[in-house]
Predict the 3D structure of the following.
Amino acid sequence: MEDHSLSSAQMADKIGVQRSAISHILSGRNKPSLDFILKVLNSFSDVSSNWLLLGEKEVSKTPGKVPQNISQKQTAKTIEKVLILYTDKTVEEYSSNGQ
């Protein structure tokens, strides 16, 4: 939103979601759904799916390898698997055990 100088209302209108959806995501009340993420990616060609999903500018495309620099909150939780679903129905999978 900041890079495109959009208000939350303008962002909601651009990607076709209710304005409250943006508000809830920004406040931390809700996490974005896959549908929401796909709408952002389809509406903004300059937004990288790796950046949007992982907070990274570039991620290695080595199948079966989880990028080492994925940021995680300091909790007992660890990431087991990351799936990237593309609009052409293909999937990339990264798992923590390298398989």
